[in-house]
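Hi there. Long-time user, first ticket. I'm pasting a complex I've been working with (about 602 residues overall). I'd like to know whether the download I got is complete or cut off, because the file seemed smaller than I expected. Thanks.
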Amino acid sequence: MAKAMSRRSDTQSIPVSFTLNGRLQELDVEPHELLLDVVREHLGLTGVKRSCDVQVCGACTLLVDGRPVSACTTLAFEVRGRSVLTIEGLAQDGKLHPLQQAFIEHGGFQCGFCTPGMILAAKALLDENPNPSEAELKHFMHGNLCRCTGYKKIIESIMAAAKTMRSNA
Amino acid sequence: MLRRFRLEEPETVAEAAELLGRFGESAKLYAGGTELLLAMKEGLVQYERLVNVKNLKGLDDIAAQNGTITIGALCTHRQLESSVALLDKLPALVKLEQNVANVRVRQVGTIGGNLCFAEPHADPGTLLMALGATMVAEKVSSKREIAAKEFFVDAYETSLADDEMLTEIRIPTPGVNARSAYLKFGYLERPSVGVAVAFKLDGGRVGEVKIAVGCAGPAPRRVEEAEALLEGKSSAEALQSLAPAGVIAGRASQAISDLHGSQEYKEHIVGVLLKRTFQSAIS
Amino acid sequence: MQFEKEVEILAPREKVWNFIWDVNRFIACVPGCKEAKTIEEGKKYSATMIEKVGPFKVEFPTSIEVLERQELTHIRAQASGADNKIGSRMKLDLDVNLREQDGKTIVKFVAGVDILGKLAALGHGIIKRKADQVLDEFAQAVKKNLEGAS
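Hi, the file is complete. Here it is re-exported in full:
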């Protein structure tokens, strides 16, 4: 999916081949392009949010090779050869991921702005540690901020999802 | 939106150092970018070229041999916080790394980048100072070791030359009697005050005491004057001397009044953290 | 931000006073200041201020205006500049007082400095330290110039 734009002849173009939500993507990006902009603007996946823009709030959390990164402060070319997961890629064949289901059932979101980042970060946590203590959960999720819920329901949702995922495994 | 820059991707340290020498101020080393990209987004700095060092081999190993622990400059905080070798030998460093920033920053941010950016409100430098670490810096065809004490010059300034790259951090393996601890305090995103202590506990006496304070002032600092107050004392006597040592350490921290707190407040917190780190290390 | 510096110069007051109005030599004492120009003798001047804190560099084209002048005793001046590349502005209010004491001249500088815009993101503390350093180096350079030269 090359960008149709008039370029200066000395513009550097980096081919980026990566897996996005399980499917192969091939793009050309310039070195200065940010992952957040490429995913939202070029790929049209707007679940990932720009919020603080300084890597503090977690609303821009994406999973790269299963690990959480701040898309707002990641250069797009860095995902070449890697797998990227956005919130849109979590549900499989129309079936919600246990985390998504749990957030609905336990009221883990209000305005929903922080939620894609929350869920992806929680997925990274549970993939690494399927049975976290509340302290471990809080430590891992420390960098994902929510202005609405006061976090109690978020913790409940993640713990409930963890339980479901352990029994499904 | 960042301004355009060219990406250089050297394969060796020599190549990277050569690029820095050739392009001078218009080029900057780029690893995790967790500090650099923020400054670039704010428009506070601009570069024509970023030199991506993540392809350089052998700079992200953690090894312990011949009495020295070596940490590659490209090790991420995440690697350090989950290193079994480090947990065994330097649990204080592991605990520090577990609490750097947040999980996303730890995922891509490197210890080398953290040290070289020399942001005043940072953790690792302070503890590395107390552990007597040295920094290995390489140019195109030369290499030198810089003691942590001499590495941090000022806010955002290290003693690295413009065409020099930090490649490794070396820490003398702590002996069986060695104790160390690091504590930080802060309620904003970055720490406001950080204190590290290291010493040997031999026959009930503390020796080779090292105290470092960071975050409060423009750069982390050893506080030899406070160390002298504790050196050679029995643990009981040392505990008694913590209060005056804390006052000295507070003043030596070069605390600046800013959003993190007033100078007096930070100096006070230095004293509190010195007491707690010492008590934690000695127990 | 407010700063105060007092410096003792082993030179007579008139010599110090004349030095201050020798714009090129005077401006040369300000670390990072270059290209001093006289726009209106005794009233308006311009210069470029370049300061660095680690990798952060600012370049302020600065205009300086003398607001008050009492021969051999007092000068009040104002300077302002903007670095559009970074998006920061600088304002300086300077009060210079000269008095004689035991054959020496005591020069007192009182400076009010405001940094606005992006650079302020670096933190009030860092900027304050840097401004203090600049003022200190300036006072020392003035002293050295006057005591060294004949």
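A couple of notes from our side: The interface with chain B takes residues 53-57, 85-87, 118-119, 121-126, 128-129 of chain C (CB under 8 Å). The CA atoms of residues 6 and 108 of chain C lie 4 Å apart.
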